[in-house]
Amino acid sequence: MDKSYIISQTETFVKEQLGHDTTGHDWWHSDRVRNTASAIAEIEKADAFICTMAALLHDVADEKLNPSKEAGLQKVHTWLTSHLTDQEQISHIMMIIETMSYSGGGGEPMSTVEGQIVQDADRLDAIGAIGIARVFAFSGAKDRPIYDPGLPPRDESLKEEYRNYSKGTAINHFYEKLLKLKTLMNTTYGRQLAEERHEFMLTFLDQFFKEWNQGDK
Ligand code: ADP
Ligand code: NI
Predict the structure, then answer these.
(1) Nearest to residue 34, comparing CAs of 67, 59, 5, 9?
(2) What global pTM score does this model have?
(3) Substitution site in 32, 135, 143, 176 for ligand 1 pocket (most atoms within 8 Å of beta carbon)
(4) In a mutational test of the pocket of ligand 1, which residue from 30, 73, 138 has the highest number of ligand atoms less than 8 Å from its CB?
(5) Considering only 74-78, 175-179, 204-208, which range has the smallest mean pLDDT?
(6) Average model confidence (pLDDT) across the chain
(7) ipTM
C-alpha cells in the first residue's frame, strides 16, 4: 500500500467534497488541521498516516454538508473501504471521525492518541487569528450580526453581562465555546499551541470592547 498515493487521492476527494464551502469547512480548514495534526503526531510519536487521513476526512462527514450525520459517515466509510485494505486502519479512522462528529453533544472522549491529536488540531483551528476569521465568516454566512449588546454597554468589567444580551452573535460564540477550547486540549503540545492562540483571542476581545465603548478615544 502506497500511503502517499492514498493521501493524495484523499486530498482530491476532500477538495471535491468541501469545495468552496464558506461556513468554515472549506478545503483549507482540512489542510490546516492535517498540518497541525502531523506536527503534534511527530512529537507524540503517533501514527502519522492515521492522523493525516482522519484530519483530511473529518469534515466530509459533517451533517451540515450531508442529508444526515449517518449519510456523511457512510460516505467516508465507502471511500475508505475502496482505498484501504487494513480493516483496523479503516475502523480506527472511522472511530476518530465519528467521535469528532458527536463531540459537540458531549460524546465519548477520544480513546486513542491519534484521535486526541486530530481533535486537538481541529480545535486549534477554531481559536487564534484563524479561529477569529472563521467565526466571522460563519456568522456572516448565517446572516448573524457581529455583536449586539442589547443594552448600552457601560464599562469593560461588564463583559460577562454583555454576553447575555448577545446570543447568536459572532462575539457571543467566543464566550459560548472558543474561550473554553484551551482547557479541552488532549495533548501537551496541543495545549502549548492553544496558549498563544487563546491569549490572542483575549487581546482581540479587549480591543473590540475598547473600541466599541469608545475607550480608545
Ligand atoms: P469544526 O467541525 O471544524 O470544529 P464547526 O462546525 O463547529 O467546526 O464550526 C465551524 C467554524 O464556525 C468554527 O470556526 C466555529 O468557531 C464557527 N462557528 C460554529 N458555530 C458558530 C456560531 N454559532 N457562531 C459563530 N461561529 C460559529
Ligand atoms: Ni473541522
Answers:
(1) 59
(2) 0.91
(3) 135
(4) 138
(5) 175-179
(6) 89
(7) 0.96
Cα angle for residues 155, 213, 166 (degrees, 5° grid): 80
Domains of the chain: 3-212 (1.10.3210.50)
The three grid cell numbers given for residue 175, joined into one nine-digit string: 464566550
110 within 8 A of 92, measured Cβ to Cβ: no
Q: Measured in angstroms, how far is the CA atom of residue 111 from the centroid of ligand 1?
A: 24
Distance 24 CA to ligand 1 centre (A): 7
Distance separating alpha carbons of residues 61 and 17, to the nearest angstrom: 10
Q: What is the pLDDT of residues 52-107, one digit of tens each?
A: 999 999 999 988 788 998 999 999 999 999 999 999 999 999 999 999 876 554 56
